[in-house]
Write a structure and sequence with these properties.
The protein is an alpha+beta fold. It is built from nine helices and nine strands. The protein has helices at residues 5-19, 27-33, 38-49, 53-71, 77-83, 89-100, 104-115, 153-170, 236-242, and strands spanning 133-138, 141-149, 179-183, 196-202, 215-219, 222-230, 250-252, 258-264, 270-280. Strands 1, 2, 3, 4, 5, 6, 7, 8 and 9 form a nine-stranded antiparallel β-sheet that branches. A hairpin with a 5-residue loop joins β8 and β9 (270-280). The longest helix is centred in the first third of the chain and has 19 residues, at 53-71.
Length: 281
């Protein structure tokens, strides 16, 4: 589904929902911010994402909670439930078990490993990925993007390649730009139907910059654990398992997105980096 101007407005509403994941969901206010009635907003939202706005936000709250349970072991479960917008511990416990088929306590104690739903995975030799990771302070990046729902693996790669070709046809200079892919949540905790992936280019200029069909967001500055690559396609999972889980200085910052940057070298091969948002323990 190609985005339209009204769809790009929905992108902004979705970002607002993510930023205010702990706040009550006021469907009427969200609809008004996108210039729709509540009925039409929910209908269009469901057509775009496959979920109602209420269900979409509930799932995002639960995935945020799953992040925090794994990466913030000192924060009580009840506090996480509250911060993720659940009215009571009982409501959170019921919703979490429905989503992840285990209790929040079991998840925190390592049950998340059993839930990982990524494609078959061959772990790297111990230490090989960790040796390549450097924590850097990255600047903010303004991104023009298209949002992809319910696609992963080869289907998502194909969709992103199509996006690049379409954009490059609009302007000859675009091949020199950097392209960014953005997961706002750990893809390992996200069911395929729930995948939400932003892909686009950084900066402004040229015919693409004013395209009303594209969303606009700012990737936040901060500390990121970066894994450089060239003519290969490493995965965030290897960064988690070979580095993040094996060191004591840094932990994931669940309030910022996972970022992938790619660009072509002189021979037309892809190079770039993966960036995990981190903060000191």
């Amino acid at each position: 589904m190609k985005p339209t101007t009204r769809v790009s407005r929905l992108y902004e509403v979705m970002d607002l929902m993510l930023d205010s994941v702990g706040d009550p969901l006021a469907l009427k206010s969200l609809a008004a911010s996108a210039s729709y009635s509540s009925f039409h907003f929910d209908r269009i939202f469901r057509a775009l994402t496959g979920f109602s706005a209420v269900e979409y936000q509930r799932k995002r709250r639960l995935r945020r909670a799953a992040h925090l349970l794994r990466h913030e072991p000192d924060v009580p479960v009840g506090r996480i439930a509250q911060d993720c917008g659940f009215p009571s511990n009982a409501a959170f416990a019921k919703a979490f078990k429905q989503q992840f088929a285990m209790s929040a306590k079991a998840w925190r104690e390592g049950g998340w490993r059993a839930y990982m739903i990524l494609a078959p995975y061959c772990p790297p030799s111990p230490g090989t990925v960790a040796a390549r990771i450097a924590v850097r302070s990255l600047p903010a990046v303004t991104l023009r993007y298209q949002r992809f729902f319910g696609q992963s693996g080869a289907a998502l790669s194909s969709a992103c390649n199509d996006f690049i070709r379409e954009r490059e046809q609009l302007e000859d200079t675009l091949p020199a730009l950097s392209w960014y892919g953005v997961f706002d949540e750990d893809p390992g905790f996200t069911g395929e139907r729930e995948y939400c992936y932003d892909f686009g280019f950084g900066g402004f200029g040229g015919a693409n910059a004013d395209d009303p069909c594209l969303g606009l967001r700012v990737l936040p500055a901060g500390s990121y654990a970066c894994l450089d690559f060239h003519n290969e396609w490493p995965r965030f999972r290897s960064m988690y398992e070979d580095w993040l889980d094996r060191q004591a200085l840094w932990r994931l910052d669940a309030t910022r997105p996972h970022i992938q940057k790619v660009e072509r070298d002189a021979e037309g091969r892809w190079r770039g980096w993966l960036a995990l948002p981190v903060k000191k323990r």
